[in-house]
Design goal:
- By secondary structure, this protein is an alpha+beta fold.
- It folds into two domains: about 1-115 and about 265-280, Rossmann fold, CATH 3.40.50.10330; about 120-260, Sandwich (Tumour Suppressor Smad4).
- Helices cover about 20% and strands about 40% of the residues.
- A hairpin with a 2-residue loop joins strand 9 (about 155-160) and strand 10 (about 160-170).
- The longest helix has 14 residues, at about 15-25.
- It is elongated.
- The mean pLDDT is about 90.
Length: about 280
């Protein structure tokens, strides 16, 4: 079995954790392939690969080491490659992590095949840019929100090409069930079971007494147009990555992505117990 090991070495405990993971995987006769950019003398990887997409294509599964941001980022790539992924948490919260650093003994279950796969849906944001049509997939959320100026924005939202609602707000969050415990939760949205097949629309600071989150089926297609009568800028961000500035009146379509993340589960977790524990700790 070939494992693509993708650590975020900027995390404090990630190098030591990565070294221990390699040692344990070798004990189970598993090959460890890593990116050339992560090369260190202390890492006894079996192969160093310069082509990231070839690395994902040739491996059997992916293990990533870092916080939620790292795991989410690598999970999007793994989903496109059709490979399952295991996240090992060296960050603060670790909602999408499958293991903590003190649980590496459970890696033996990979070699034994004693694990399950949990499917997580993703969203796709589609819009026109100067370079043409762009499509970006999100495991957590798609956010359309104002920039630095404290100016409210108008949003027209259509559901399946039919007018649905008008919002005056700082922004809108389109969140997957996985992302329901992230920014959407902070904005007053509900927590969804991560295996649900649907998604959320949660307004950010809506200028209304009735601005509540709405849950849609997985087949819903939402179209958003943004308007501002001031010089305030509007940005689109996906999973907290770099923002894309939107033009006044520009249209963004949000729907379920054709790709889905397959999270490797090596132990039985009670989701709501984890939510209470993680949010209390953070």
């Amino acid at each position: 079995m070939i494992v693509a090991l993708l650590p975020n070495l900027d995390k404090k405990d990630a190098p030591q954790c990565t070294q221990e993971i390699i040692r344990r995987l070798h004990r189970f006769d598993m090959q460890v392939w890593m990116r050339v950019s992560d090369k260190r003398e202390s890492f006894a990887a079996d192969r160093w690969v310069s082509d990231f997409y070839a690395l994902l294509s040739d491996c059997d599964l992916v293990i990533t080491v870092g916080g939620d941001g790292t795991i989410i980022h690598e999970a999007r790539h793994a989903a496109v490659a059709g490979k399952p992924i295991l996240g090992i948490n060296t960050g603060r919260v670790g909602f999408v992590a499958g293991l903590e650093p003190d649980e590496l003994n459970l890696l033996s279950r990979l070699a034994e095949g004693a694990y399950t796969l949990e499917t997580r849906i993703m969203l796709r944001a589609e819009f026109e840019s100067k370079s043409g049509n762009r499509q970006i997939d999100a495991l957590n959320d798609v956010v359309i929100a104002r920039g630095a100026l404290s100016k409210i924005i108008d949003f027209d939202v259509e559901l399946n090409h039919t007018e649905m609602a008008h919002y005056r707000a700082d922004g809108l969050i389109f969140a997957t069930p996985t992302g329901s415990t992230a920014y959407s939760l902070s904005a007053g949205g509900p927590v969804l079971d991560p295996t649900m097949r649907g998604f959320l629309l949660t307004p950010i600071c809506p200028h209304t007494l009735a601005g509540r989150a709405i849950v849609f089926t997985e087949n819903a297609c939402l179209t958003v147009k943004t308007y501002s009568t001031t010089q305030a800028k509007t940005f689109l961000t996906v999973d907290g990555d770099s923002a894309v500035e939107l033009e006044n009146g520009q249209q963004v379509t949000v729907r379920r992505s054709p790709y889905a993340v397959q999270l490797i589960k090596l132990k039985q977790n009670h989701f709501y117990k984890i939510v209470n524990q993680k949010l209390t700790e953070s």
